[in-house]
Design a protein that fits this description.
The chain is globular. By secondary structure, the protein is an alpha+beta fold. It has 15 helices and 19 strands. The strands form 7 sheets. Strands 2-1-4-5 form a 4-stranded mixed β-sheet, sandwiched between helices. Strands 3-9-6 form a 3-stranded antiparallel β-sheet. It has a 3-stranded mixed β-sheet with strand order 10-12-13. The structure holds a DNA duplex.
Amino acid sequence: MKKGRLYNRQEIEVISKSAIGKTMNDILKEELVSIGDIDNKGGLGQLIEQYLFGIQTNNESEPDFMPAGIELKVTPYKKIKGGKLSAKERLVLNIINYMEEWKNDFRHSHFWMKNNTIQLLWYLWEPNKDFKDFKITHEKLMELVQSEDIKQIENDWNYIVSKIKEGKAHELSEADTMYLGTCTKGVNSSSTREQPFSDIKAMQRAFCFKNSYMTQMVRKIIGDYSDVEKVLKGTNNTFNEYVNNVIEKYKGKTQKELMKEFSIDSKAKNINSMLISRMFNVTSKLADTEEFQKANIIPKTIRIEESGRIKESISFPSFKFNEIIEQEWETCDLREELETTKYMFFVFKKEKGEYVFKGIKLWNMPETDIETSVMEMWKKTYNTILNGNIVRYIKDGKRKTNFVGMSENEVCHVRPHGRDSRDTFKLPVADKLTGATEYTKQCFWINSNYIKGIFEEFN
DNA sequence: GCATGATCATGC
DNA sequence: GCATGATCATGC
């Protein structure tokens, strides 16, 4: 097969399959390319296009292979704790032209034209390895028309476009949608573009399949899939419709009534999360089911007191002091998590002494809060650790810290989070006041007062 | 009553 | 034994 000409579908498949088991080095050697001349500027994808298929990067507005209408994507996966597999990155698709994308319907959109058929090549990413040594292990032709998720993807696209039509392109967030998201694309947050229905410049964004969605695909196609349970079983409903049906069925019932209905007799702390799994008729934890995993939705139970108060803040996993100072705000774990995670809150409100299930609230943190309050808190935390300026003073044996407190920030704060105060992580810089080289594990918390604002409609 | 430091309970 | 979600205890 001569490279560099117009391929049809079968030829693309043959070439893709021929790459399996090869590294970039192997491919370059076959093409007699001097390895010293290669850098990774355009990413592995561009090298594969150039040297495996013999095509030059084309005008971005149409798929890589024309007239076959197939887009090529080379994407990494990795091994994580416990030997499981995970996508290493979201799959970044075309940049959104806010001025144009809203003009057509889904099946005639630029998104659809460019991405409805994608030839995927997966390579295994490994730490401390040169990119030319990553091995391509799997390939798949992904045709959206045939995807079981096409309905949801169309819903996601419609949601994104509706935000553009409302003049809210600047409020887009990756966590807005289930599978098809929008991720920021560009050197920094000053890479902005105009939008048609507002004078506010919006951050440049591209369509993407979320990391969580790609992870499920990796597990399905490459391994580790067997034990994932689906929420949607034998129904034509979309996820949203199904969820609404479940909620309507159980709304207004008390915790006691639900326990009786599901024959649960337990004093467990997580009784409410046991109840919600049963509402959805799944045996796994709701968070571990396919749809929740793919969309990166985290279910959480919330208790509202009779006064309308929410007592507890929401915790994140504890962070390592060392890791914080190795990161920068733009790419740090916390920002990534808040931008990609959607929370499904199951609301239990106390009425006449009993908790009553009041429904759910799907929520993700607005961009404006992430880029202001959360950023300020994160940066202060970074500086506090970097300067070894943890302890402010000690009184009655209790240490007061310089970490951001709940009253200092509208959205979030830093507090201990471990087994007890002796459960510590190492400090990169010893604490100035006490000389301590390790300190009680801490984590980021979302303020209970801020959370209360999310649930105004339930009061 | 709330903010903050501290700790519990469960599952793997 | 640890990670994680959830909750407690105390002083202002």
